[in-house]
Design the sequence.
């Protein structure tokens, strides 16, 4: 729900009348659609136009998206996925519907009415389609024309939702409808042509993420598209999966460079890192090196923004990679770790160095509570790595002083610090 | 609770105004917004009714007319839509079950509706038997909101046996992240809303063993910002609704004392429209019934005086869940 400043809620008589007019128009549209739906009158092209109008007024009205889906799938979802029959029906129906709907673009001209360059990407897709030499069996003239018509319809539908998506970027149903359209592509287009739609969709997703870098719909959608694009079916049409881990990993870096606080990007990076190393066939030395570089990346950020939780969470993720191994390296699920075979000496060295670096931060930022939190966290981890009792005792005093600082700087979480104190003294 | 009395007048709960606001919601048919939000109607009834129960004014909405409306949203397949003529979906089906639980009307579902068994079947059929997760409807969108909704409604109706609980629990575990939180699908970033759905689902089936309570508690407690409000993810703005998602999650791992109670009270109460009733996302914004409920549940969970106790797992009054499920240990 978008937040809107509170205003005086009373209306003038004129405003009230305007509202009533809008309501009448809206309910009229709704009634007409329900009238068709009640009679299962999905074949009437007027229905498609009505849904277009209503969805522009209210894209949150999920039943109407379903109606559009039903129109597309016509008499049954089961048939839709399994029957060739669907292809012909959809084509006939939608071509007919769109023909009568001047509100929707028939084609997607570059730089047309929309507000983003995505539509241009849609246009590129058309070009790519022609160039791609679709792998489908030689089609006769009619089939080629049908294919072009299908492509145009799907493109028009995708274009229709773009302005809605820009206005309502957190509307589940719009994202859902786009993924439905992609599944239609897979069902009716040759593999190469369908793939182009998915590629264009990834570009759209990137655009949405430049508009709102934290939009979790867009991040989820991105992972969904990437995983589809990686599948064998989307590549040689067979079993060869083609990983996009390298390019997606690079993408997280490009997002982080723009905004260090983008935890969504850091999160995705944490998910991609272990996979990246596996796919690179990285040996232990390369893994250690990787860990080193990532720690440095996080620290570089911390040097300028130690108040940023995103950076600390990523730093903590990396430290967990080291700490989780435990003293003998056996009590951890080494599976999926960045550097599963680090020696105990290496691990102590890593922790030692990070703690020293973090302590250095205090010289410039003595009042940043997240620094003390990290120091405490890692000091406890260091204990778990089997430090000597003597060092422990020295450490204890330091830890209590950090805790005292936390209580002073962060009174909101007093209860947590009290609990921590109890466990440290235990 | 001594400190509460020290709060200035504008930080007292405007109970009467909130009751009036909720009562007025269905009389706004001459407002365009009323029609634009019809797809939330059944949720809205649940939000409003639950809020009234917390305010100890359960009789402020008519029980019989509510039952009639709820049942008028039910489809042949057992599922409920947002309003008559709207398609059946998990989100509304759960609200319907919660409302009927709240006003003790499951018997009406048997007498005049399609019956519990049909509702249970509608929900159970939405489980993905391979991965254990749930879709919202036949179109197939899946996320942990629907899994939680399914567990919530099915357990209230005593029908959890209709689904594969172990698979669903495995799916939740797959949604866990290094920070102790959960995302809406495996691989997704931790988000307070999804953390609530995952923890509550695990609580319902008594399978909290995999939860990293300390780690998660730290993350959740860091959601409180200097103004007392809570955000949903790192480096995001505060919003009253997170008073519920974050706080109920902290309650499920026994760590509500890891944030500052009075600071949150102050934030929620500053979001009230003390004159016309209702609570908004942030101070000075337009109120709505969703934020009104989640402001009140936040206050209730922290023991604000004069409010009924909320169950952090079901988001229903404790008196309701105890009547149906028996007292909690």
Sequence:
């Amino acid at each position: 729900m978008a937040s809107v400043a509170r205003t005086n809620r009373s209306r003038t008589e004129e405003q009230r009348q305007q509202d009533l007019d809008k309501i009448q128009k809206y309910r009229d549209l709704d009634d007409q659609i329900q009238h068709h739906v009640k009679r299962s009158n999905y074949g009437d092209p007027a229905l498609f136009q009505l849904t277009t109008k209503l969805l522009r007024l209210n894209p949150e009205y999920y039943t109407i998206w379903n109606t559009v889906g039903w129109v597309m799938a016509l008499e049954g979802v089961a048939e839709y996925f399994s029957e060739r029959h669907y292809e012909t029906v959809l084509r006939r129906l939608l071509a007919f519907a769109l023909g009568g709907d001047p509100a929707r673009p028939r084609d997607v001209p570059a730089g047309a009415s929309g507000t983003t360059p995505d539509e241009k990407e849609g246009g590129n897709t058309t070009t790519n389609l022609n160039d791609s030499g679709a792998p489908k069996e030689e089609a006769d003239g009619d089939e080629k024309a049908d294919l072009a018509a299908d492509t145009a319809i799907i493109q028009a539908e995708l274009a229709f939702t773009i302005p809605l998506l820009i206005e309502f970027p957190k509307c589940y149903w719009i994202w859902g409808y786009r993924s439905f359209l992609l599944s239609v592509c897979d069902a009716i287009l040759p593999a190469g042509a369908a793939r182009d739609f998915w590629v264009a969709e990834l570009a759209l997703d990137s655009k949405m993420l430049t508009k709102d870098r934290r939009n979790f719909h867009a991040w989820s959608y991105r992972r969904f598209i990437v995983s589809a694009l990686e599948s064998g079916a989307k590549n040689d049409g067979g079993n060869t999966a083609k990983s996009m881990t390298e390019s997606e990993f690079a993408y997280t870096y490009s997002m982080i460079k723009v905004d260090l606080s983008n935890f969504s990007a850091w999160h995705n990076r944490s998910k991609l890192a272990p996979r990246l190393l596996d796919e690179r066939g990285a040996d232990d030395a390369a893994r250690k090196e990787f860990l080193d570089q990532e720690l440095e990346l996080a620290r570089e950020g911390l040097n300028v923004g130690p108040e940023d939780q995103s950076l600390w969470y990523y730093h903590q993720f990396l430290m967990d990679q080291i700490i989780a191994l435990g003293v003998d390296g056996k009590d951890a699920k080494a599976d999926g770790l960045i550097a599963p075979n680090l020696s105990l000496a290496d691990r102590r060295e890593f922790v030692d160095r990070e703690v020293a670096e973090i302590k250095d931060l205090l010289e410039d930022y003595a009042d940043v509570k997240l620094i003390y939190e990290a120091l405490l966290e890692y000091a406890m981890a260091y204990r778990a790595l089997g430090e000597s009792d003597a060092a422990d005792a020295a450490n204890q005093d330091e830890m209590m002083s950090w805790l005292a600082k936390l209580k002073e700087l962060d009174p909101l979480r007093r209860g947590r610090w009290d609990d921590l104190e109890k466990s440290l003294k235990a | 609770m001594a400190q509460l009395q020290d709060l200035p007048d504008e930080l007292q709960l405007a109970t009467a105004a909130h009751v009036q606001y909720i009562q007025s919601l269905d009389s706004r048919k001459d407002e365009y917004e009323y029609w634009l939000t019809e797809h939330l109607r059944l949720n809205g009834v649940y939000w409003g009714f639950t809020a009234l129960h917390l305010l100890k004014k359960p009789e402020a909405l008519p029980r019989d007319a509510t039952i009639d409306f709820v049942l008028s949203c039910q489809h042949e397949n057992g599922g409920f839509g947002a309003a008559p003529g709207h398609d059946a979906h998990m989100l509304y089906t759960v609200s319907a079950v919660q409302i009927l639980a709240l006003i003790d009307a499951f018997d009406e579902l048997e007498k005049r509706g399609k019956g519990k068994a049909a509702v249970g079947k509608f929900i159970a059929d939405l489980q993905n038997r391979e991965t254990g997760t749930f879709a919202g409807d036949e179109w197939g969108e899946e996320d942990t909101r629907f899994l939680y909704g399914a567990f919530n409604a099915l357990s209230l109706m005593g029908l959890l046996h209709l689904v594969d609980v172990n698979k669903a629990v495995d799916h939740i575990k797959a949604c866990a992240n290094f920070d102790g939180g959960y995302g809406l699908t495996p691989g997704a970033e931790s988000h307070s809303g999804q953390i609530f759905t995952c923890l509550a689902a695990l609580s319902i089936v008594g399978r909290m063993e995999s939860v990293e309570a300390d780690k998660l508690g730290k993350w959740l407690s860091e959601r409180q910002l200097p103004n007392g409000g809570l955000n949903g993810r790192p480096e995001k703005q505060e919003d009253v609704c997170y008073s519920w998602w974050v706080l109920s999650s902290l309650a499920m791992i026994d760590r509500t004392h890891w944030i500052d109670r009075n600071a949150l009270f102050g934030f929620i109460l500053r979001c009230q429209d003390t004159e016309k009733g209702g609570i908004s996302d942030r101070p000075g914004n337009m109120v709505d019934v969703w934020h009104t409920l989640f402001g009140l549940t936040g206050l209730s969970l922290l023991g604000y005086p004069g409010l009924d106790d909320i169950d952090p797992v079901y988001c229903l009054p404790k008196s309701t869940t105890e009547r149906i499920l028996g007292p909690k240990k």
Q: What stands out?
A: Chain B touches chain A through 60 residues (CB under 8 Å). Chain B has a mean pLDDT of 95. The CA atoms of residues 105 and 302 of chain B lie 29 Å apart.
